[in-house]
Amino acid sequence: MSRPVGLVVGTGVDGVELLSDARALRITTPFGDVQYLRGTLSGVDTIILKRHGEGHVVPPHLINYRANIMALYMLGAWQVITTSAVGSLQSSIEPGSYALMDDFLDFTKVRAHTFFEAGNVVHTDMTHAYSGTLTHVLAAEMDTLNLPVSTTHGVYVAAEGPRFESPQEVRMYVAMGGSVVGMTGVPEVTLAHEAGLEYQTIAIVTNYAAGMSGAPLTHQEVLDAMARASASIVLLLRQVVPQVAGLPDGRAAAERPLDFLLRS
Ligand code: HPA
Q1: Rounded-to-integer distance, Cα 104 and Cα 199, Å
Q2: Model pTM greater than 0.90?
């Protein structure tokens, strides 16, 4: 059976322009309602969730990550590609470049971060939280499109936000081996992995992290950098979504790890 491909788009990426015949829909999950777009992208049935909501109104620490991932799970979108604006922690990872992730460091603090609460003691392995298969497809296509790729094995540092990091926090993240820092990657990736979905993010490097360039950071520079990248992101998604649609289902289809939440 063919499944919809799931996209979660972050700051600076407008979902509706990606789809032909986009319909605005809503699904009720055990964690709340989720609005999404469903339509066709390069001939493929595609679901798009806007991470920060319509009009970019939900800050990173208040996003209902569980509802979003549950919605994708319930809609049968086993392959999930997301976009995320990130700051660079390494001089070799230049603003304007694109990065794929291989691992993460979680410094979030106040987020509902798991599907497995009392009564369901499950310890999900995070050795391959980011999908190697999706990395492969995305990296090959970025190469074809000649996009500047800074790393395909990035370590994503998830900061709580919504403030930017302090310079000393940035030095700590660098010492710990972080590649990029953002505010939304965790628990999105960990919940997706708990759900058995294949997940990878296209990280768009918008700036050097706080203290690295000397100048204070602004949200506007993140938005400006995303605006410069948006045409390339659209092109990349148009190319990869049909390839992703043909991939095997991942763990979710066989194991259905979250079905217990849907039994009333
Ligand atoms: N820090 C955290 N999140 C971000 C940054 C940053 O420097 N740039 C874009 N998103």
Answers
A1: 13
A2: yes
- Cα–Cα distance for residue pair 79/117, rounded to 1 Å: 25
The structure tokens listed for 128 are: 């391959």
pLDDT tens-digit readout, 136-190? 999 999 999 999 999 999 999 999 999 999 999 999 999 999 999 999 999 999 9
* Dist CA 103 CA 80 (whole Å): 16
263 vs 260: CA distance, rounded Å? 6
Question: Probe ligand 1: pick from 90, 207, 223, 226, max atoms within 8 Å of CB?
Answer: 207
> Is the Cα dihedral 75, 79, 85, 88 positive or negative?
positive
Alpha carbons 50 and 52: distance in angstroms, whole number: 6
Compute, in angstroms, the gap from residue 209 CA to the centroid of ligand 1: 7
Q: Residue 137: CB within 6 Å of ligand 1? A: no
- ∠ CA 186-191-197, nearest 5°, is 120
**DSSP H helices in the chain:** 65-74, 132-144, 167-175, 185-194, 219-245, 251-255
